[in-house]
């Protein structure tokens, strides 16, 4: 850890934890003054405790860290590799990146991940949309414009991460999200009526891993990455209209101004939602085309890909639209859309 080497000035506030170093920031929870060294220790210890309490990992497991080169995933890679060494978790860690093929954005951020590979000594695997699907996001945007580009990108990325994980033969994929991101996702899933995603995101696989860094809010992430001088990439995607998420973010920030616990309360609501046990859920099978997990004949990525390849990019856009057994568009609304209940 980097030492707070600045000399103590007379009258300067001392850290309330070690009572020795000059305080560098206020703890958001308690508003106490704290030095950099103690801030690092508290931040890392909170994450370590979440890992232990939730038994997130077992010794010998292979873990892929989803690495975009951005701040959140860089903090995750750094902290997890530090804790793994310090507390002998016995994990085999890897960096896993997805190259969406976005010139001027992802090519630059992947350079950051390649430096992280050397800095943290973690092997890196990159999977690309071009190799997996035969399309880059540059080509997709050229065909469809900027309206539904993030739908294609999101579906393809989720599957690309899973395929990369299978290639690395890992047991789990850890993705870095701060508390603000998680609260936005809860709200967006509710606003879109996408409770099935919400359920799988929050209860089945990802929630326990999200917990790891979700205990930290955006300010603490930023402060940690800044003070530690971590090497990360902070430019926005050039195809990022994503207005809907932007509105949700602003709304949550407004709520937080009135009620500081708003972010944590929204996440708590996310935890407490679950699908009613009386609701008939789609049966999970495999895609007839690519073998990926799917409750339909074809998985969503294959439907979107078919649209692109046939020059009909709107095929598969929108909820519950897919292809029937003749490969024609099926516009019927899925009557099994699940309902929700609260614990
Ligand atoms: Fe993909 Fe949209 Fe994110 Fe850009 S903003 S990386 S297009 S999901």
From TrEMBL:
<dbReference type="InterPro" id="IPR014729">
    <property type="entry name" value="Rossmann-like_a/b/a_fold"/>
</dbReference>
<keyword id="KW-0963">Cytoplasm</keyword>
<dbReference type="Pfam" id="PF01171">
    <property type="entry name" value="ATP_bind_3"/>
</dbReference>
<dbReference type="GO" id="GO:0005524">
    <property type="term" value="F:ATP binding"/>
</dbReference>
<dbReference type="InterPro" id="IPR035107">
    <property type="entry name" value="tRNA_thiolation_TtcA_Ctu1"/>
</dbReference>
<keyword id="KW-0819">tRNA processing</keyword>
<keyword id="KW-0067">ATP-binding</keyword>
<feature type="binding site">
    <location>
        <position position="98"/>
    </location>
    <ligand>
        <name>ATP</name>
    </ligand>
</feature>
<feature type="binding site">
    <location>
        <position position="176"/>
    </location>
    <ligand>
        <name>ATP</name>
    </ligand>
</feature>
<feature type="compositionally biased region" description="Basic and acidic residues">
    <location>
        <begin position="326"/>
        <end position="343"/>
    </location>
</feature>
<dbReference type="GO" id="GO:0016779">
    <property type="term" value="F:nucleotidyltransferase activity"/>
</dbReference>
<dbReference type="InterPro" id="IPR011063">
    <property type="entry name" value="TilS/TtcA_N"/>
</dbReference>
<comment type="similarity">
    <text>Belongs to the TtcA family. CTU1/NCS6/ATPBD3 subfamily.</text>
</comment>
<keyword id="KW-0547">Nucleotide-binding</keyword>
<dbReference type="InterPro" id="IPR032442">
    <property type="entry name" value="CTU1_C"/>
</dbReference>
<feature type="region of interest" description="Disordered">
    <location>
        <begin position="319"/>
        <end position="343"/>
    </location>
</feature>
<keyword id="KW-0694">RNA-binding</keyword>
<dbReference type="GO" id="GO:0002143">
    <property type="term" value="P:tRNA wobble position uridine thiolation"/>
</dbReference>
<dbReference type="GO" id="GO:0002144">
    <property type="term" value="C:cytosolic tRNA wobble base thiouridylase complex"/>
</dbReference>
<comment type="pathway">
    <text>tRNA modification; 5-methoxycarbonylmethyl-2-thiouridine-tRNA biosynthesis.</text>
</comment>
<dbReference type="InterPro" id="IPR000541">
    <property type="entry name" value="Ncs6/Tuc1/Ctu1"/>
</dbReference>
<feature type="domain" description="tRNA(Ile)-lysidine/2-thiocytidine synthase N-terminal">
    <location>
        <begin position="63"/>
        <end position="194"/>
    </location>
</feature>
<dbReference type="GO" id="GO:0000049">
    <property type="term" value="F:tRNA binding"/>
</dbReference>
<keyword id="KW-0820">tRNA-binding</keyword>
<feature type="binding site">
    <location>
        <position position="72"/>
    </location>
    <ligand>
        <name>ATP</name>
    </ligand>
</feature>
<comment type="function">
    <text>Plays a central role in 2-thiolation of mcm(5)S(2)U at tRNA wobble positions of tRNA(Lys), tRNA(Glu) and tRNA(Gln). Directly binds tRNAs and probably acts by catalyzing adenylation of tRNAs, an intermediate required for 2-thiolation. It is unclear whether it acts as a sulfurtransferase that transfers sulfur from thiocarboxylated URM1 onto the uridine of tRNAs at wobble position.</text>
</comment>
<feature type="binding site">
    <location>
        <position position="181"/>
    </location>
    <ligand>
        <name>ATP</name>
    </ligand>
</feature>
<keyword id="KW-0808">Transferase</keyword>
<dbReference type="InterPro" id="IPR056369">
    <property type="entry name" value="CTU1-like_ATP-bd"/>
</dbReference>
<dbReference type="GO" id="GO:0005739">
    <property type="term" value="C:mitochondrion"/>
</dbReference>
<feature type="binding site">
    <location>
        <begin position="66"/>
        <end position="68"/>
    </location>
    <ligand>
        <name>ATP</name>
    </ligand>
</feature>
<dbReference type="GO" id="GO:0032447">
    <property type="term" value="P:protein urmylation"/>
</dbReference>
<protein>
    <recommendedName>
        <fullName>Cytoplasmic tRNA 2-thiolation protein 1</fullName>
        <ecNumber>2.7.7.-</ecNumber>
    </recommendedName>
</protein>
<dbReference type="Pfam" id="PF16503">
    <property type="entry name" value="zn-ribbon_14"/>
</dbReference>
<feature type="domain" description="Cytoplasmic tRNA 2-thiolation protein 1 C-terminal">
    <location>
        <begin position="285"/>
        <end position="315"/>
    </location>
</feature>
